[in-house]
Design goal:
The chain has 72 residues and is of the alpha+beta class. The protein is 32% helix and 25% strand. The model has no long low-confidence stretch (mean pLDDT 86).
Length: 72
């Protein structure tokens, strides 16, 4: 690697989440704030909502069938 062209790397960057969680990571900035982290993200907390994909697909198929019937 060339010397003096890379940014300074901080091994103990302090990250603060909007939920109040604080942790350290490696980054080229000393500290930063995030809106969501693994402590409050619905996927990690188990509070995620599953989409009703079957219902959405059925509605789409019904619209397509209605349009093809109207063309005939």
């Amino acid at each position: 690697m060339k010397t003096d062209i890379h940014p300074t790397y901080f091994n103990d960057t302090k990250v603060t989440c909007a939920c109040g969680a604080k942790f350290e990571v490696g980054s080229n900035v000393e500290s930063f704030n995030v809106e969501i982290c693994s402590n409050c993200h619905p996927f990690y907390t188990g509070q995620d909502k599953q989409l009703d994909v079957a219902g959405r697909a059925e509605k789409f198929k019904a619209r397509v069938a209605k349009k093809t019937a109207a063309k005939k």
